[in-house]
Write a structure and sequence with these properties.
single chain, 244 residues, alpha+beta, Carbonic Anhydrase II, two-stranded parallel sheet, 4 helices, binds zinc ion
Length: 244
């Protein structure tokens, strides 16, 4: 399990264009689309699992969720276009504390439209901040975007957005991932998976309740560079609960 998760992080960090490390192509439509991911490779069998992400967050169970402790001081190193998303790799040293464990921020990336839904509502874009602890356990912090005022942190990133699949650039101006978070870090929580192959389960999902804004132009620019929606459809919640 541990090995699989570490492999998955490696995959998430990989820069190979539209292909996984073992060369198995997957996408968001047609024969290699989300409905068939599990069939593409034995490595992707988890994509048919019972604890998959994204989900429609609803039927909330009240819980005393402890406040998240963001200690994002590492900054961002590089930005890449892997054909599936635009990803920013974090420098070491940014952490979030949850369950008494420190998880280090590895990378953050974007989906348009949003992957998760909140009470059935879709958002035009969603950021995923991917963290891992020393044992390879993963926490994804999700932030929803609404169309409105331009987003300053996004503006810095989008100025350097690689337009071509497979392209990776060092960031010339620093981007603090903290600037992508809303002031209030109240959140929903559930157990899920990576939303891309190999769909590894056992991921702690944190969805920040408050959305942040991005301009319609910023959202469109991302969608244009991706050439297609990059959201996996919502998955069955099965026996899981969403805590709030
Ligand atoms: Zn994602």
């Amino acid at each position: 399990m541990k090995k699989t998760i570490l492999f998955a992080i490696g995959m998430a960090l990989a820069t190979s264009p539209a292909f996984s490390a073992e060369g198995i192509h997957w996408g968001y439509s047609g024969k290699t689309g989300p409905a068939d991911w599990a069939k593409l490779s034995p490595e992707y069998s988890s994509c048919d699992g019972k604890n998959q992400s994204p989900i429609n967050l609803d039927g909330f169970i009240p819980a005393k969720l402890v406040p998240l402790v963001f200690d994002y001081k590492g900054g961002s190193a590089e930005i890449l276009n892997n054909g599936h998303t635009i990803q920013i790799n974090a420098r070491p040293g940014s952490t979030v504390g949850i369950d008494g464990i420190e998880f280090e921020l590895k990378q953050y990336h974007f989906h348009a439209p949003s992957e998760n839904l909140i009470k059935g509502k879709s958002f035009p874009m969603e950021a995923h901040l991917v963290h891992a602890d020393q044992n390879g356990n993963i926490v994804v912090v999700a932030v929803m975007f609404t169309a409105g005022e331009a987003n300053k942190a996004l503006e810095k990133a989008w100025n350097q957005m690689p337009k071509t699949e497979g392209e990776k650039l060092a960031l010339s101006s620093d981007i603090s991932p903290l600037d992508l978070l809303p002031p209030n870090h109240a959140y929903y929580r559930f157990n899920g998976s990576l939303t891309t192959p190999p769909c590894t389960e056992g991921v702690r999902w944190v969805v920040i309740k408050d959305a942040v804004s991005a301009s319609a132009a910023q959202i469109e620019e991302f969608a244009r560079v991706m050439h297609h929606p990059n959201n996996r459809p919502v998955q069955s919640i099965n026996a899981r609960s969403v805590l709030e």
